Amino acid sequence: MRKIVSLAVALMAVSTLSAQQDKGGITEAMMQEIRLGQTNSSAEKAARNALALNSVAELATDADNLAMIDTHFSHRVRTKGITDQHQSGRCWLFTGLNVLRAKMIDEQNLPSLEFSQNYLFFYDQLEKSNLFLQAVIDTKHLPMDDRKVEWLFKNPLSDGGQFTGVSNLVMKYGVVPAEVMPENYQSNNTAQIGNLIKLKLREYGLMLRQQKDRRAPVALKTEMLKDIYSMLVRAYGVPPTEFEWTRYDKEGNPVETKSYTPKSFYKEYFGDIDLENDFVMVMNDPSREYYKVYEIEYDRHVYDGDNWVYLNLPIDEVKALAIASIKDNTAMYFSCDVGKYLLKKKGTLDINNFDYESLMGVEFPMNKEERIRTFASGSSHAMTLIAVDLDEQGNAKKWMVENSWGPSAGWNGNLIMTDEWFEEYMFRVVVDKKYIPANTLKLLEQKPIMLPSWDPMFAYEE
Q1: Has 336 been annotated as catalytic?
Q2: 414 labelled catalytic
Q3: Share of residues in the chain with pLDDT > 70 (%)
Q4: Which of 130, 168, 381, 414 is catalytic?
């Protein structure tokens, strides 16, 4: 009888609460119950006092984890120098060019080298402008409030990107050394020029949608791109079509001086590397089915180039591919959710860097899949994966990436990540096909599953 009465009381309580929530608002009764959950302990008061005057990150820094992580790595790619993207979202471009840089420095025995990010960024912005204008032409039969059209006009241009931007742009336009087309204020601070070009593109997009003649938009688009090209020249300079370059040995002695075009320069030093066909982007996304290939619509830099296509693999298989590449002295394009548990003072990515639970008095138990599904985590930044530290059994203990935030940021310009952090916040790595097992490569023969442009996991990396 007592059990029945208790059940009746519980059901009445649930019924009362349901009635309170019928309209969805916080009622006075609910507010009273919420307030009852607030404690006034000395620990609560101390946390409140501290938060009133300090940043969450400073207060949550775990004092038991302040010692610097061991900086020895059992396997490390040979490279030199640290680049700096300054106030721009060009991490994807710096990362891709740094992968090529490491290879050329090692093979040509150079004292140093940096490629011109400004040169390829010029063409990136021109190609993306054409991509937007042509996509507007392709979708002009759709209403303005169609989600695809809406997405296009919300995202006419970005300085962010991903690996297919590197591969398509390099294979189409070649590369030049940094001194041939150096960085300037605008390339290091892209927001203002980018906003002006986006404003012009949106204007032109509306004009193209109003065209009735099916042939007219193509000629009109060309005239529009002339204006965009002129704006880019004023901001970033004139891209070279020919240049002279002297190669030096590691002691700084001149070896030879030759004239090149950007494409002949690439062919001479990277002629055996086909960036568009020799590499595969693999991803660890536990919110989607593994061993499937995915493609993201309009997620490319060049209209006649490649959409972002990737193979989704379990984390252990991604690690194995990365380890094989590093052991063979080959750096990789790598992207992750860099803002999570980054301790800039040390240059470490470690889930033990911050103790948010103790500071806030609540737990944060979501796993990687749940964070992805709820938009709590996603890839935000690309870097160059250059090192791994393996134990005696061949398991990774930690990893290191070459960053593009300048030599004073992080640990000598690099970031060191624990293997546990790697598992939780690493998302993509681009691997040469020669390191991928045949049975895994065969998976790429399947027809990709097309995902929409606005899928949040595939925002441009900055």
Answers
A1: no
A2: no
A3: 94
A4: 381
